[in-house]
Amino acid sequence: MVASALLNSTKSINLTQCMKVLVTQNRSFTSHLNEQQLAVQELARNYTNQYLKPRASQLDLQGRFPFDEIKHITKLGLMGACVDEKYGGLGHDYLSLAIAVEELSRGCASTGMIVSIHNFLYANLVNEQGTPEQKERFLSDFTKGSIGCFALSEPDAGSDVANIKTTARRDGDYWILNGKKSWVTSAVEGSATAVFATFDPELRHKGLACFLVPLDAEGVFRGKKEPLMGVSSGHRAATACDLTLDDVRLPASCLLGQAGDGFRIAMRQLDQGRIGIAAHAVGIAQASLDTAIAYAKERVAFGRSLTALPSVKDRLADMCILVESARLLTWRAAAHVHSKHSAMAKYAAGRAAAAAAAHCVQVLGGRGLSTRYDAERHYRDARGTQIYGGVADVQKRLVGHFLLKEHDAL
Ligand SMILES: Cc1cc2nc3c(=O)[nH]c(=O)nc-3n(C[C@H](O)[C@H](O)[C@H](O)COP(=O)(O)OP(=O)(O)OC[C@H]3O[C@@H](n4cnc5c(N)ncnc54)[C@H](O)[C@@H]3O)c2cc1C
């Protein structure tokens, strides 16, 4: 109805312009969850409340990878939430997965991050782009306990993806990979990774290809766990490391798509990956709000609980607005995947997590800095969500690009 009314009222403009108006005014998103999404939310919420949340502080303080927790989450089906049932997955939609990642991240940000990257950047990629042979080899085991990774970043290529230096050389029925990847999440524990490499550096982004690489292949060397300590970084229980590829010989069947498709594959998958990091950030923001409210109710100052202080009430209200607006953008991005939606959700959710965690530390006062309380962990965990999966500055530029494109103003 809205569409026909708009079409009638715009007889003087041409159809292309009209469709652009329809796209920008699309209001079809609903925040109501369907039965499947509600069921996943309850499943992840119960597991988080009963098992994950009580263990998160110890996992973080000891910097221990959550092996048992990931095993349990695998049994719940959440390490293949969107993967076809034929390959051991649940066959659910992205919104269900985003909701699960939010709930898990609310309990333990490290675990939420591992689940987010495994699903959105590896399992969904192979599920959607892989050949049947690739799915048998690189997906079936990955819904049953093996962990998958995504190796795009390099020492000299983070935001600037087209500057990738890792090379892929064709040799008969094989490809030979050489180079170095940085910051590969879960590569210390993982079994396979997507690797992006150039077969012709002069072609820049058009010269990229994507390969599926077993992490035990000859010539693959995993670096040490990157130390993520100190105030500016969190996720101590998750891991990231360098990967060195030294004459790694892969059969041509490990090439995902065609040579030259690598940049398109990376960008498309990052649109999904950003939904995953946004959901992860919403979980951290919600955890910060929960921690702050619980403390403010108990703590007495000037003869009353902190919740009676207008400034604390204002902080809690700010946090609530940040969490809920970020959640809506994230759900919208998961329901309608588009680069602008994903970038906007990641940008807003990362800022919401950082701001909510800072409020949380402030509400707890001196205890906000103590490792006996959760606030400082949320503060460290929140920071990274504005960096990995694409830095906040670039997300904002992407939003501006797509906004102006919609308005023919580029
Ligand atoms: C804990 C952790 C886990 C990670 N996991 C993975 C992973 O699993 N796989 C993977 O491939 N990578 C991973 N990364 C890498 C991550 O995605 C990159 O760090 C990120 O994309 C930024 O790249 P960079 O660090 O090279 O920063 P740079 O690209 O050098 O950017 C540095 C700063 O420069 C500015 N900047 C750069 N370019 C622009 C631009 N175009 N517009 C505006 N400002 C700009 C921004 O302020 C930015 O913050 C991980 C990183 C961390 C910290």
From TrEMBL:
Ranges for domain Acyl-CoA dehydrogenase/oxidase N-terminal: 35-145
Classification via SUPFAM superfamilies: Acyl-CoA dehydrogenase C-terminal domain-like, Acyl-CoA dehydrogenase NM domain-like
Species whose genome carries this gene: Vanessa tameamea (Kamehameha butterfly)
Catalytic reaction(s) noted: hexanoyl-CoA + oxidized [electron-transfer flavoprotein] + H(+) = (2E)-hexenoyl-CoA + reduced [electron-transfer flavoprotein]; pentanoyl-CoA + oxidized [electron-transfer flavoprotein] + H(+) = (2E)-pentenoyl-CoA + reduced [electron-transfer flavoprotein]; butanoyl-CoA + oxidized [electron-transfer flavoprotein] + H(+) = (2E)-butenoyl-CoA + reduced [electron-transfer flavoprotein]
Protein name: Short-chain specific acyl-CoA dehydrogenase, mitochondrial
Coiled coil spans: none
Annotated Acyl-CoA oxidase/dehydrogenase middle domain residues: 149-248
Function (record text): Short-chain specific acyl-CoA dehydrogenase is one of the acyl-CoA dehydrogenases that catalyze the first step of mitochondrial fatty acid beta-oxidation, an aerobic process breaking down fatty acids into acetyl-CoA and allowing the production of energy from fats.
EC numbers: 1.3.8.1
